[in-house]
Amino acid sequence: MSSWIGAAVLVLATATAVGTAVAADDHPMIITSPEKLEYITVPNMPTCATAAILRGNPRSGPAWVLLKLASGCRVPWHWHTANEELVVISGRGSIATRGGPTLQFAPGAYASLPNHHVHRATCTRTCLLFNTADAAFDIHYVDAKGKEISLDEASKRKK
Predict the structure, then answer these.
(1) Does this model's pTM top 0.70?
(2) I need a surface site. Which of 7, 35, 126, 128 has the fewest CB within 10 A?
C-alpha cells in the first residue's frame, strides 16, 4: 500500500508543478475517481493497451492519460512525434530504449522519452502508467534498422 501512496504523491506533485505553470483560464478544474474512468482502446496500438483520458485530447494535442497494459502485453519498438513522459503507478514490466537504459517498472519509476526516440514496452503483470504527451499522440513502429513498419508486422517480429 505504501508504494501506491508514494506513486500517487509523485503523480500529484508532478501535476501540481505543471499545473502552476499554466494559467487557470487555460485548464478548467477536473476531478474524477477511478470508478468513473472509461478505458478505451488506443488506435494503432495492441488491443492489450487501453487508456483513460484525464485531460486534453490525444488525437489533436497535448493530453494526460492513464495507460493500462494487460499482463503479457507487448508494445513493439516504436517512436512518437510528441515528447512522452510516464510515471509507473503499479505493475511489473519495463520500457527498453534503443541506445539507452531499460526502466524496470516499480511504483514511482519515471521516464522522459524525447520525440522520435525508439522504445518498446512490455508488461508481465498488469501495468498502470500516468502518461503525458506534449502534442497529438501518434505511434510509428520500426524494424531493427529503424524503417517504419505496420503494427501487424512489428507484432510478428521476435521479442
Answers:
(1) yes
(2) 35
